[in-house]
Structures are given as structure tokens and as C-alpha cells.
Design a protein that fits this description.
The chain is built from 17 helices and 20 strands. The chain is α/β, with parallel strands linked by helices and about 450 residues long.
């Protein structure tokens, strides 16, 4: 049997696991089903405009310590730009623009002072937000029944008014967890708030890629793996595991080839993993059976190209609208040290997360909603001519961090000897983010290295 570790999936989780193992001197072989790497965090070239388009817009944060380490290891960290401190501009349908800007003060004072100075809230609302500091105190494990509450139930019980929830906490919940606060777990949201907002100004800062997502990591990680003796292969469709006597000895491919391995890391989404696991294990082994209770949370990205700029801001949080976030991709890409292919059109990307109510709507209808809301928010959008549009629906963008979902998320080590799991849906303690994916890859790699 070959000594190499077989990794299924070429997204952030699989790549992180492969890089960690390669760095430690373990031979790896990574197999990706699609003809390109990147999984659910990838980019492609739009043939109509020549623009690089992400399959879904992703923000980074200063608290993404594992991701930062991964990108530094493969040499692409400089492709990201981070704020000096958390700054978010909001625009509402009333035309009022406001900003939350946190100064360089020790946590949690950076956030508290930022809220106090913000014109986004009334004084009564500011006091409500500041009152959350007490609710977020104590150890991470002192959740006092939060596992049974939704974010909305928890915040309401803490005296956060409907207005504060709608215009502040809900935007954070949807942005960080890709789920409606009426569904999302309060237990996980509290953990996110403590990590992202109440640690340090640096941890709270937002970051974004100045290039397409794929350019941030896929080629550099591939070169790193190959330079350490590993292999990366695309268009390799894994259809099953070679499991006998409680141990995994490799995988089978769609062309009937059997690929033996010393250990296997499945870094595929939960729904894909369930499809290649032997049915009897899904039925009889509780470790795997509970995975079936996970549900998806969709994301819709609406990409628009105009004949002129409609805003000079790089990104905006939107209030009172169907669309939640606006990213000025032309502005973001223009500041890159490694510019993406240029287009004469002005490119805007809009994001609708936790899009359960909208995923079934026709793309033409979603486009109409986006243009109507942009016209209400930005006067320049009324005068601009739409040149091209592209609506991307990701029905299985992430797992839904609903109440009870944490108990269904599996650990990296499985009951099958030699079979390990990675992916943002595993038990990372985080929502389905890039940081969760990278952390899961490192955790799976660590389990294998401990065996040596």
C-alpha cells in the first residue's frame, strides 16, 4: 500500500490539509472532481466582459488566524487587504448613509467607542448594543441554554429592540453565518461575536481579496504541494471508499479505477460525502447518520456591469433591502498589485445570504429586484446603463447553522480507521467560513500526523 495520504476535494479545506501534510514531509495526492480547483470558493473569467468573477463574494477577518497562516505559507497573503480597524458603511432606503468605525483601542473598547461615535443608531439603540458586553462575558462554555435558542430569540430576550436587531445584529448574523437570525443558533453566534468583535481591533478588521478567489490560493497551494513531492489532479471523480473490516484503504473513481492510500481525508461538502459513503454506514453508524440532519443555506450573487461608476465606495452594508451587501469589484481590483483582467465596464457584486425565500425566484426577477433597490439607494445607478449581468445561485453554498446543527457536525476522526473528515461543515466551532474550512483541513492533517 502506498504511504501517501489521499485527499478528496480541492477547496480551502482540502488544500490546507494537503499543504500542512506536505510541509510535515508526508506525501499527498489530492483529487478534485471538477476540472478546476477551488470548490465553493473559486473564481472564473466571465467571457462577456473579461472580468474575474467569484462564485460567491467572501470577506476575510483579522480573526482568521488559520487562513492567514495558510496564505502566508503558500506566499499569497499579500493578495489580501485588511482594514486598520473595523469600518463598515451602511446605506438605507431612506438615503441616509452612516458608518461604524472602531478606533485602535484595546478590546472591547474599540467596539464600544465605535458604536458610541456612530451615527447609525439613536442613543437608546447605542445603550442596547453596549449592554451586550455583559451577555458576552464569561467562558465560551457558559452558554446557559443557548443551544436551544435562535439568534433572534436570544437577542430579543436580552432587550435588543427590533430596530437594533434589524439594522445591526441581523446584518452581522447573516454576513458571518449565512443564515436568517430566526433560524441560526444563538450558541454559535455568541461564539462568533466573541471571536470577531470582542478580542482585539485587529481581529475585528475586515479584509478582501484584490484578485479572484482562485488566484488567492489554488495555484500557489498546488505549487507548494508539488514542490514537496505531492500530486494534485483535477477531473477525478471519487464515487466510493474502499472500506473493509472497519478500515479505509483508498477510494474508487467513476472510471472504476481503485486508488489505494494509507489514509484518506474527505474534504467534500457534507451532501457529497454522504453520497459516496457506503449506505450501510449511513444507516447504522450514528456518527455518520446524524450528518443527514444537516440542511443547506443558499447564497445568491448578482453581478452587474454598468457603463459608469455608481459608487466610489469599495463595499457597503445595505439596510431595509432584499440585497444585503454591495461590493465595488472594479474599485477593489483596481488597487491590486496583481491586477485581474480589466474591463471597460464598472463591475458591482451584490450578495444575498441565507436566501431560502429567494432561491426559487427566477434570475430575471432577482435582477429586477437588484436594479430597483440600487436605483433607490444610489442616485448614480438610475442614470447608469446596465451592460451585462450574471446571477449565480448556490443552493448548497453552506450548511445551515440552525439550532441543533452543532450536534450533527462530525469530528475529523471517524469510526473508520484511516478515514478523516475536513470541511467547513465539520466540528470546527465556527460557521461555514473560509476560516472554518482551513481550520478543518489543519485539524484533519494533525490527526494523521499524530498517528506517525
Amino acid at each position: 500500500m502506498p504511504d501517501e495520504v489521499l485527499i478528496i476535494g480541492g477547496g480551502f479545506a482540502g488544500m490546507a490539509a494537503a499543504v500542512a501534510l506536505s510541509k510535515a514531509g508526508r506525501p499527498v495526492r489530492l483529487l478534485e472532481q471538477k476540472p478546476h480547483l477551488g470548490g465553493r470558493a473559486c473564481s472564473f473569467l466571465d467571457s462577456s466582459t473579461g472580468s474575474v468573477v467569484d462564485n460567491g463574494q467572501h470577506l476575510f477577518m483579522g480573526c482568521y488566524h488559520q487562513t492567514i497562516h495558510f496564505l502566508k505559507t503558500i506566499g499569497t497573503f499579500d493578495l489580501l487587504t485588511f482594514q486598520a480597524g473595523l469600518t463598515v458603511r451602511f446605506l438605507g432606503l431612506d438615503g441616509r448613509e452612516s458608518v461604524l468605525q472602531c478606533p485602535q483601542l484595546p478590546a472591547p473598547w474599540h467596539l464600544l467607542v465605535g458604536v458610541l461615535k456612530s451615527g447609525s443608531f439613536t442613543w437608546a439603540e447605542k445603550l442596547q448594543i453596549l449592554g451586550m458586553r455583559r451577555a458576552l462575558g464569561g467562558s465560551a462554555n457558559s452558554n446557559n441554554g443557548l443551544s436551544a435558542l435562535t439568534v433572534d430569540q436570544w437577542l430579543s430576550g436580552l432587550g435588543q429592540s427590533e430596530s437594533v436587531r434589524r439594522n445591526f445584529w441581523n446584518l452581522i448574523c447573516i454576513g458571518a453565518m449565512n443564515e436568517d437570525p430566526g433560524i441560526a443558533s444563538a450558541e454559535l453566534f455568541k461564539r462568533v461575536l466573541k471571536l470577531a468583535l470582542f478580542k482585539s481591533p485587529r481581529d475585528s478588521s475586515l479584509g478582501w481579496a484584490r484578485v479572484g478567489l482562485s488566484d488567492c490560493y489554488t495555484q500557489a497551494a498546488t505549487e507548494f504541494i508539488k514542490s514537496h513531492g505531492g500530486k494534485v489532479e483535477v477531473s477525478r471523480n471519487v464515487t466510493g471508499f474502499l472500506i473493509a473490516n472497519g478500515a479505509c484503504a483508498g477510494v474508487t473513481l467513476s472510471d472504476k479505477e481503485m486508488v489505494p492510500a494509507r489514509a484518506v481525508i474527505s474534504a467534500t461538502p457534507w451532501n457529497k460525502f454522504a453520497g459516496i459513503l457506503p449506505p450501510e454506514l449511513l444507516r447504522k453508524e450514528p456518527f455518520f447518520t446524524r450528518i443527514l440532519s444537516l440542511r443547506p443555506a443558499p447564497i445568491i450573487s448578482i453581478n452587474l456591469w454598468f457603463d459608469r461608476p455608481i459608487t466610489e465606495l469599495e463595499f457597503l452594508g445595505l439596510r431595509g433591502t432584499t440585497i444585503q451587501w454591495l461590493f465595488n469589484k472594479s474599485k477593489i481590483f483596481s488597487a491590486s498589485k496583481h491586477p485581474a483582467p480589466r474591463s471597460d465596464a464598472h463591475y458591482i457584486s451584490l450578495v444575498l445570504s441565507g436566501a431560502h425565500k429567494h432561491i426559487g425566484r427566477a434570475k430575471e426577477e432577482l435582477l429586477g429586484v437588484a436594479l430597483r433597490e440600487l436605483g433607490q439607494l444610489l442616485p448614480a445607478a438610475k442614470e447608469a446603463k446596465l451592460i451585462h449581468s450574471l446571477v449565480i445561485k448556490e443552493r448548497f453554498a453552506t450548511f445551515s447553522p440552525a439550532v441543533g446543527a452543532e450536534s450533527a457536525r462530525p469530528t475529523a476522526r471517524t469510526p473508520i480507521h484511516g478515514l478523516y473528515l475536513a470541511g467547513d461543515w465539520t466540528a470546527t466551532g465556527l460557521p461555514a467560513t473560509i476560516e472554518g474550512a482551513v481550520k478543518s483541513g489543519y485539524t484533519a492533517a494533525g490527526e494523521i500526523l499524530q498517528k506517525v
